[in-house]
Amino acid sequence: MTPVDVRVKIGPELSIGKNEIVNVSQVTCKNDVASWKDILLTGSPALTMNTAIFGTLANGMTINGTDYLSPIQSGIQVMTITGLNSASISIRVYIVLNRSPTQDIKVNKGDVIGQINFEQKNDQSGCPKCGPYRWRLIADNDAYFVTTSCTINNGQQINVD
User: Fold this and answer.
1) Cis before residue 45, ω within 30 degrees of 0?
2) C-alpha closest to that of 97 among 35, 19, 6, 149
3) Pair 8, 22: CB distance under 8 Å
4) What is the pLDDT of residues 66-104, one digit of tens each?
5) What region holds the FimH mannose-binding domain (predicted)?
6) Could you tell me if residue 122 is inside a domain?
7) Domain-embedded: residue 157
8) Can you give the pTM of this predicted structure?
9) Angle, CA of 67, 47 and 141, to the nearest 5°
10) Could you tell me the pLDDT band of residue 39, with boundaries at 50, 70 and 90?
11) What span, in angstroms and rounded, lies between the C-alpha atoms of 130 and 39?
12) Which end of the chain is more exposed for a tag (fewer CB within 10 A), N or C?
């Protein structure tokens, strides 16, 4: 299945540890048959990141407030909606920085950041309209991340005689 391009804003700042780079809640889904219950689950693989941009940095997703480090299992429930309701996708994509030096990260508007794979299910016999969804995350802005910092003397003043 060909992925759908989803344009997302890229976050501006990084620090040691978990760093959100994409908030997918910019996207909403709508139930289109009032009597059906639609269920969105993670697919396989749930998340792939563009290694040309992010190298081998650890990454993951926060889904409904729970952190999952890649590789992320399939079948995690992302949302359930019914009654013609709409809901935001409660997913945030993150990278993890440690104290080891790594190359800075440069993202240009239009770059493919990664891909999220979903599986849609419903409560109908034979599961009509079920199947995979592939979302290719496209940067909607430029971003440059400095991934390391250096402090001398624990950030204290240095007196030179």
Assistant:
1) yes
2) 19
3) yes
4) 999 999 999 999 999 999 999 999 999 999 887 777 778
5) 5-125
6) yes
7) no
8) 0.81
9) 95
10) very high
11) 9
12) C
